[in-house]
Amino acid sequence: SEELARHFEVSQRTVYRDVSALSEAGVPIISEAGVGYSIMKGYHLPPVTFTPDEASALATGGVFISSHTDASMKQSMSSALMKLRAILPDKQRARLEKIESHTELPNSQLHQTENAVEITQLQLALCELRLVDIAYLDGRGQLSKRTIEPVKMLFFMERWHLIAWCRLRNDFRDFRIDRLQSASVTDQHFE
Q: What is the DSSP letter of 170?
């Protein structure tokens, strides 16, 4: 599990949780002390399939991502949609492409100016309950350095916000992501 955690850049706890989830879902995982994990010989995962409505929802999400997030999210969404197109039947693929070309959202402020901080890094901190050291420029133009415990991200009034417990203020704060001058996800976890 230590090698898997290093390879996939996740915690060992995440590896244990994922292996447990696979086992509970019926995937025959074999664990050998000193050897590692393997899937029972002869077992094959069923192919991933999407209904037309599921594929359409993903395409619509892709349009939102492309106009309301940063480069880190756009790249991930583009890659995911490319994989989706590869497994869809021709008719569904044509529908997905039509939805993408006929759906438009007005560009947000975020689209016009990229953030100094990648949204995917903040999502990592949220998912893994990691502390984040930030430099934040407030509405008055004052820069402060803080350590925060991220709790939620939300898109409100054409801007991404990070709700977090601020250790400097000892209270919850709403940090506009476009005002983050820097953010460093630490190895320290919080509860």
A: T
Task: Give the three-state DSSP class for 134.
Answer: strand
The total number of residues written for the chain in this structure: 191
Please give the Cα distance from 39 to 28 (Å, whole number). Answer: 6
**H-helix or E-strand spanning residue 137:** strand 130-137
> Hey, which residues does 145 pair with through a beta bridge?
135
pTM above 0.70, yes or no: no
Q: Please state the φ and ψ torsions of residue 137, each to the nearest 5 degrees.
A: -100, 110
Q: How far apart are CA 164 and CA 145, in angstroms?
A: 14
d(CA 163, CA 129): 13
Residue 116 is classified by DSSP as S
Report yes or no: 180 and 136 within 8 Å, Cβ to Cβ.
Answer: yes
Helix intervals (H) in 46-150: 52-68, 71-87, 90-102, 109-112, 119-128
Instruction: Answer yes or no: are the C-beta atoms of 180 and 117 closer than 8 Å.
Output: yes
List pLDDT tens digits, range 159-178.
889 999 999 999 999 999 99
Instruction: Name the amino acid, one letter, at 22.
Output: L
Using an 8 Å Cβ cutoff, are 174 and 163 in contact?
A: yes
CB 37 within 8 A of CB 85: no
Query: At 182, which amino acid appears?
Result: S
